[in-house]
Amino acid sequence: MTVTKMSWRPSYRGSKFRNVYGKVANREHCFDGVPITKNVHDNHFCAVNSKFLAVVTESAGGGSFIVLPVSQSGRLDSHFPKVCGHQGNVLDIKWNPFFENIIASCSEDTSVRIWEIPEGGLRLNMTEAVLELYGHSRRVGLIEWHPTSSGILLSAGYDYKILIWNLEIGEPVKMIDCHTDVILSMSFNTDGSLLATSCKDRKLRVIEPRSGVVLQQASCKNHRVNRVVFLGNMKRLLTTGVSRWNTRQIALWDQEDLSLPIVEEDIDGLSGLLFPFYDADTHMLYLAGKGDGNIRYFEITTEKPYLQYLMEFRSPAPQKGLGVMPKHGLDVAACEVYRFYKLITLKGYIEPVSMIVPRRSDTYQEDIYPMTAGTEPALSASEWLSGINRDPVLMSLKDGYHRPNQLVFKAPVKEKKSVVVNGIDLLENVPPRTENELLRMFFRQQDELRRLKEELTSKDVRIRQLELELNNLKNVSPNNV
Length: 481
What we know:
- By secondary structure, the chain is mainly β.
- About 10% of the residues lie in helices and about 40% in strands.
């Protein structure tokens, strides 16, 4: 197979998305005064759904994030309540695609936590999570919800392991242990039967998640992979990375043959990480660089040239991360096909950017809004774990989205016990690997020793009191006789 090199200069062809343009929201619809985190971890630090906008914030001691109602734009109060239960920096947050009040977070404190946000947003700081999931021995950098099952969550840690959590029982049910270095990104295919991962060991993998079997693997020497994303039902993967000449690059792969990429395309010579976003409904790919102000977008086809450059949205403000609004939260009347929430750290500012297809008619445009994945799960966690695969339950955007979800998230009642996966106890004591982990473990042990000493002292006092009472009883009994 030969690798095709392409230029992203536009060659004009018939496409209904050729004139898509980016429109920045008015200032009154932006979010100002948000203390966005300064953490250098390569992630978005932002998650959006049709109700809420969640952003990881800068905080002293522990980690926190704020949850804002999407409609509550404007300047943020400095004392706005936060979700602040983690003991280390929060590294990733993701909304459950089926329960719009449920959000997952992962942190440097090695835990994954599930939070339930009350209707209308937070009124007080939230410190108690619905579920606390412990299984990783080092910090957890990535989380990913299953696209069709409501109770399956994946987490990837710096212990090079991926854990599959069944939230119906609150336990890990599978450990994927095929990586030899830090996992950089994860992506499910449409029905959640395959998982693609990119790793710091320069390998791209396609994995069957329930068995942990690696179906395809590519050693990327010329194209150093950073991020990977499945391209809907096209049986294609797209990766962003760096070429051997240190230029930013994207590559298109056949998911059933990773021996060579179908297409490689150099983007530019900048150093920021490229984040890919794929819209399966319009077959459009958006590329946004960390620290860049622009967003490029392409149309992907199954025939040559495969990647068709469309346009570029430009802005002078550099982005730290981007959140994406789900399809049912878009403004259909304005022909909006995608919406980003752009984090601008220097200004503490969040700016919605809408991608709009220019149309003169005010009627519903069925050609740009096909049936899309809705908010109903196709199967339960136990069904998926048993080997069943189902495509997402589709919905139409024609009449807007007003039907409330009748599902209720029920957290299991957990007892403290050992967690054994593949014969390994994930909660056993593991030696610290960094100075920070060593200090954290030292202070935890100091707190535990202090607690045990106080408990021992109180028990000694109680023993003396009982001995005195016993002696009094012995002295009283002979006199009575």
